Amino acid sequence: MSTGFFGDIKPVGYEGPESTNPLAYRFYNPDEIVLGKRMEDHLRFAVAYWHSFTWPGGDPFGGQTFERPWFGDTMEQAKRKADVAFEMFSLLGAPYFCFHDADVRPEADTFAESAARLDEIADYFAGKMSETGVRLLWGTANLFSNRRYMAGAATNPDPDVFAYAAATVKHCIDVTKRLNGENYVLWGGREGYETLLNTDMGRELDQMGRFLSLVVDYKHKIGFTGTILIEPKPQEPTKHQYDFDVATVYGFLKRYGLENEVKVNIEQGHAILAGHSFEHELALANALGIFGSIDMNRNDYQSGWDTDQFPNNVPEMALAYYQILAHGGFRTGGTNFDAKLRRQSLDPEDLLVAHIGGMDCCARGLKAAARMIEDKALSAPLEARYAGWNSAEAQAMLSGQRSLEDIAARVVKDGIEPQPKSGRQEYLENVVNRYV
Ligand code: GLC
Ligand code: MN
């Protein structure tokens, strides 16, 4: 039964590139085969509950702009919100969603009561999931909004906060498992510091390492088969966030012996805030073997903060999906729209239009990336660039069969004088331009 929130809007269908219908897909065609796989199975789209259904439209200068019939703090309203959320997932044909505990149920006065409320909503979700076929890409706990977390969750100087956060994550993993979630995300929004004058960094990192180990142990104990993902971000809300970027997270995982247990959920906007491109973070995660999932969005390139806009830069997205496809695509991960409307976009239809645009841009990016892969447009020149390493002598250097003296002796004996070759960047950029 329709909630009526979206009026009499019909399920969004694929109409092809020529369509001018704002409520149709022009590029996202779930059943279309790309590189031998359905587009829907490549992209694995998820809607983020928090931005679309919980965020009120505030900014640092003003509060709520959106008026939604489910805003409030009763369980009845939480269920109305779920009704509309699942209606939207179905209208869009989005196969997945993601949520924090705090997005889906009002917090109560005690931990136990808050947990009971989450269980009640999880049961409600389970019913909606089996009715609609929508699945859970990942669950997570909000360990950053409540004032108890102002000095961190796992990294808090107060061990009671560590314990409270641990209990919260335990329960959220239980719920994620119950709903067959395919991943569990930890974003350390408050795991960082404002000033070293009140911060013992070494101690806080050890706390964070212990916390993550507890989570991994628990996952195995209960047989949760999803992937544990850390989501890097360099700052905001804290000045210095410990999960700065992929490289930093990898170092952290190595130090605590968790590099084979935990992967990363990489967000476009967070990559930009860290001074990287999205594809840099994706390529590095793949190189290090810790790529998991993505949060798709876009930051304003001038303002310098996390604007969480819906994505629309197809050439950039093509390069991002190129990095994903070139390494075999998503396994348990997917494309979560961690994106929110602009605060003046008040209408229910804006929610649909935003997701339709995001999904279409992703589809275009994916298709461009797939064609570059099929044509070996970038991989063939790349292979040629490193071809010298295929020689027996080069392989011997790489595999540790040659010492520094061996190599030095050969340089003299063979009279090696390296001849520089063009990197052909502009040629390659022009190649990419043929596909996007
Ligand atoms: C917060 C962050 C977002 C992250 C999410 C899940 O909402 O802003 O980037 O993906 O938490 O942990
Ligand atoms: Mn995110």
From TrEMBL:
Keyword line: Carbohydrate metabolism, Cytoplasm, Isomerase, Magnesium, Metal-binding, Xylose metabolism
GO molecular function, one term: xylose isomerase activity
Name of the protein: Xylose isomerase
Entry annotated with the keyword Metal-binding: yes
Keyword match Metal-binding: yes
Annotated binding of Mg(2+) 2, by residue: E267, H270, D306, D308
Location, primary (coarse class): cytoplasm
Enzyme Commission number: 5.3.1.5
One GO BP annotation of this record: D-xylose metabolic process
Native source species: Pseudaminobacter salicylatoxidans
Residues annotated as binding Mg(2+) 1: E231, E267, D295, D338
An example Gene Ontology CC term for this record: cytoplasm
Places the protein is found: Cytoplasm
NCBIfam families: PRK05474.1, xylose_isom_A
Domain of life: Bacteria
InterPro entries the UniProt entry points to: Xyl_isomerase-like_sf, Xylose_isom_bac, Xylose_isomerase
